[in-house]
Design goal:
Rhodanese-like_dom; 36% helix; alpha/beta; five-stranded parallel β-sheet; Thiosulphate_STrfase_CS; thiosulfate-cyanide sulfurtransferase activity
Length: 143
């Protein structure tokens, strides 16, 4: 009869390989190729903006309120207020384009980026730290 230690080891291996959980460890789906929100720093966001400066397929999306946007925003940014029918307004945007999303501190933009992903947008970058980090980095604003 196998020892208790051996049985525990076998159970641990079976659970690891998904035998009892219904997991298919040999699945052809590669999670690395599934769309995901890319959280990036202000420096990475600036580089992304610079690389895509002339691309019609790149949108900078400011999800702050119109009054916050009017106080200063990243040059070329489009305003879509997260608090005002954000998800319903997404249908007006092309899901095949690349989006850089930001807000004041990064909280709203993280939620907005997740909603965009859930609504079929494939290329979404969330600028961590928001416009506050952008300003702290000495980067330009437009009013």
């Amino acid at each position: 009869m196998p020892s208790k230690r051996n049985l525990i080891a076998v159970l641990a291996l079976l659970l690891t390989f998904g035998v009892f959980t219904g997991c298919d460890t040999g699945s052809a789906v590669d999670d690395a190729n599934l769309p995901a929100v890319q959280n990036i720093s202000v420096a990475e966001a600036k580089a992304l903006i610079d690389r895509n400066a002339v691309s019609a397929d790149f949108i900078i999306l400011d999800v702050r309120t119109p009054s916050e946007y009017a106080q200063g925003h990243i040059p070329g940014a489009v305003n879509l207020d997260y608090y005002a029918s954000f998800e319903a307004s997404l249908s007006a945007f092309d899901k095949t384009k690349t989006y850089l999303v930001y807000c004041r501190t990064g909280n709203r933009s993280a939620s907005a980026a997740r909603l965009m992903l859930d609504n079929g947008f494939a290329a979404i970058y969330n600028m961590q730290g928001g416009i506050n980090a952008w300003i702290s980095g000495g980067l330009p604003l437009e009013t």
